[in-house]
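Re-running Transcriptional regulator to confirm reproducibility after the cluster update. Everything else is unchanged from the original entry.
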Amino acid sequence: MNQVKFRIIKMKILLIEDHEKTGSWVKKGLEEAGFIVDITADGRDGLYLALENNYRLVILDIMLPGMDGWEVLRILRTAKMVPVICLTARDAVADRVKGLELGANDYLVKPFSFSELLARVRNQLRTSQPDSKVINIADLSIDLTRHDVQRGGVKISLTRQEYSLLLFLRCIPERSCPEH
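Result of re-run:
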């Protein structure tokens, strides 16, 4: 009997944090929790990465070189609705209100507990919907509007049941599936 094997699709997170120790600590913890994490210490670079890639979440410091987090958030909100958690030492109520009014989904003040950050990350991922109507997984593309599936640019014909199964499997990325 042939065994069908699947691989886990990990969610990608962008961490924009200029404090090296904090950045590496958060990155390591998120990777141990099963996420793929890209990190940058510069606001301009972070904005570029956020706009050019399909991240499921952005964790954003406010006090950054190149471009501050407020400006990154302001520009990002005009282009994408990816969930954003501000992670910053700016603890004044006015700063928290500003972050939320600019479009942050959550705001966590440093110092913080990693377990609290992880709970907030999971909550944002659970309650948010992907920004795009097209899901891209490596070279696989699923157009949710046209019910079209392509791999490497080549259209794949699927039955309604196969398409539903593909979407179901895509929606459970945190579950462990055996490898090929």
